[in-house]
Design brief:
Blueprint (H helix, E strand, L loop, with lengths): L1 H18 L62 E8 L10 E3 L2 E6 L2 E6 L4 E6 L8 E11 L6 E10 L2 E8 L4 E7 L2 E9 L10 E10 L2 E6 L2 E7 L7 E8 L5 E13 L1
Antiparallel strand pairs: 1-15, 2-3, 3-4, 4-15, 5-14, 6-11, 6-15, 7-8, 7-14, 8-9, 9-10, 11-12, 12-13
Length: 266
């Protein structure tokens, strides 16, 4: 009897629920707890290095200087047969050369050498000797280059000099090139143009010896006893001697000369 009452009550309860206005009961599924994601290692970006200014020791010129391909090893040539020494200058005093200090540059004799120095000027300077003028001889001297970096700067040995506007000169630049010029009435005429030789190196410091054999119209040019250049010209058969330097003013130029010697050629 008790089971019958319970069953009737259960059935009646279901009827009441179906007739009532209650909203549907929705059972939401229980979501699983998400599995923790293990982060992968992220590569730390490295900073891009900031480029530093690169020192350009030899900037290009507007007009490239002509250059011929040098031989790998200069051919060593026998110096001309030399006779007695005519002049042997050890630069122990300044009585034979022009010396001065000026805003354009300095020509100073000290420590048995003469130094031409230009600091921050766009200028050219020179020192001429008071020795007797000659035509034929072998002239030799040592060169010590202390500062030389700008390709427009140069230094030179002048010979058969009549004055500053009339002379021959062997010119060297900071690229290690050299050329032979004739200065006639203030104008420059190139006898042998810029060339490299494998002996004289670019820039400074460096030391080398040079020699010039002048015999009539024939001119021969040596570096470290190796023949580098030959040229011919008849405009100046005789003259004096000088040392020249010029700078564009972008960097200092300092060159020294020592052991100046004039010898006869047999």
């Amino acid at each position: 009897m008790r089971k019958t009452k319970i069953s009737i009550f259960f059935v009646f309860s279901l009827i009441l629920l179906s007739l009532s206005g209650c909203a549907d009961i929705r059972i939401q599924p229980i979501e699983d707890t998400p599995t923790p994601v293990t982060p992968t290692a992220t590569e730390v970006p490295t900073s891009t290095p900031v480029p530093t200014n690169t020192i350009v020791w030899f900037p290009p010129t507007a007009t490239p200087r002509p250059m011929r391909t040098p031989t790998a090893v200069p051919t060593v040539n026998q110096l001309p047969p030399l006779g007695k020494v005519i002049i042997n200058e050890d630069f122990s005093s300044d009585e034979n050369w022009q010396t001065y200090r000026s805003p354009l540059g300095n020509a100073v004799i000290a420590n048995n050498e003469i130094t031409l120095a230009i600091q921050n000027a766009d200028s050219g300077i020179a020192s001429y000797a008071s020795f007797p003028q000659m035509g034929d001889y072998y002239m030799s001297l040592d060169v010590s280059l202390s500062l030389c970096s700008w390709n427009g700067d140069w230094y030179a040995v002048a010979f058969r000099v009549e004055d500053s506007e009339n002379q021959y000169r062997w010119v060297f630049n900071c690229l290690g090139q050299s050329r032979v010029e004739k200065v006639y009435r203030g104008r420059i005429y190139v006898l042998e143009d810029w060339d490299i030789n494998g002996i004289i190196k670019p820039a400074a410091p460096q030391k080398f010896s040079i020699g010039i054999a002048a015999q009539g119209s024939e001119l021969r040019f040596y570096a470290n006893d190796s023949l580098l250049i030959t040229a011919e010209d008849t405009v100046f058969p005789t003259g004096g001697y000088g040392l020249v330097a010029a700078s564009d003013g972008y960097s200092p130029l300092t060159v020294s000369f020592s052991n100046f010697k004039l010898s006869e050629i047999n």
